[in-house]
Amino acid sequence: MRRLKTVVALAALSAGVAGAETFGVQAGVGNAGLHLGAYSRVAGFGPVQTELRGTFDRSLTGGGETRVGADALLSVNLLLLRPYAGVGVGLPLGGGSGASFQTTLGARFGLPGPFSGFAEGNFGSRNVYRAGLLLRF
Predict the structure, then answer these.
(1) What pairing do the DSSP bridges indicate for beta strands 48-58 and 33-45?
(2) Among 8, 32, 38, 63, whose Cα sits 20 to 30 Å from the Cα of 14?
(3) CA-CA distance, 92 to 136, in Å (whole number)?
């Protein structure tokens, strides 16, 4: 009986009971200012899916730099959270310090209704840490 409980728990964790969304928009704040983003699932197999995401970041300090970015992410749907990792590029709008390549590590976690929370670190020419809300579809 104990073995059956262990197998059921592992199956639930790996199968992603929470379900996979196909599209989402996110808004958050971080050490670099305000963050907006939208992502879409490109492909998926079981609990693993690939996503493309576009971002818009507005700095509240310095000169108020605005950056747009694009990321390719790989996420895994676990029972209580969805960790993800990816690579991307960020570009300044209105003349800035130039394009930068970045890696992203983060996780989404369920909240009531169609909302999720997210926390992530974005590492490249500058390190950015963000947290916020995500509306998933």
Answers:
(1) antiparallel
(2) 38
(3) 27
Q: Model-level pTM greater than 0.70?
A: yes
Residue with tokens 């009986």: 1
Report the alpha-carbon distance of residue 126 to residue 38 in Å, rounded.
21
Token pair of 83 as six digits: 């960790």
Q: What are the residues whose beta carbons fall under 8 Å from the beta carbon of 95, sequence distance 6 or more?
A: none
Sign of the C-alpha dihedral, residues 63, 64, 70, 73? Answer: positive
- Residue 122's alpha-carbon distances to 18, 30, 56, 127, in angstroms, are 25, 10, 13, 6
The pLDDT tens digits for 47-104 are: 899 999 999 999 887 677 888 999 999 999 888 899 999 999 999 887 767 888 999 9
